[in-house]
Design goal:
This protein is mainly α. It has one helix at 11-78.
């Protein structure tokens, strides 16, 4: 009788691990994309809020200056 040679039996396990690796890479890629989109949305929100604050501050300052000028003109007119 012929001696039985070693038969490689790990092929199924290696295939399973390769599929898991591919799956994990795909999931990681999707999560990284989602994270980048969230980060971009956050940066856009911060930029928008900063612009709103700056505009509101400028509007408030202009209103205060206008009111002060008006009051000064009224005081000057009244004597």
């Amino acid at each position: 009788p012929e001696a039985s040679g070693y038969e490689f039996r790990s092929h199924g396990i290696i295939e399973m691990l390769e599929k898991l690796h591919d799956k994990f890479v795909d999931e990681r890629t999707a999560l990284e994309k989602e994270e980048m989109n969230s980060k971009h949305a956050h940066e856009m929100l911060v930029q928008d809020l900063t612009a709103q604050i700056e505009q509101s501050t400028q509007d408030r300052e202009e209103k205060s200056e206008s009111k002060a000028k008006h009051l000064q003109a009224k005081a000057d007119a009244e004597g």
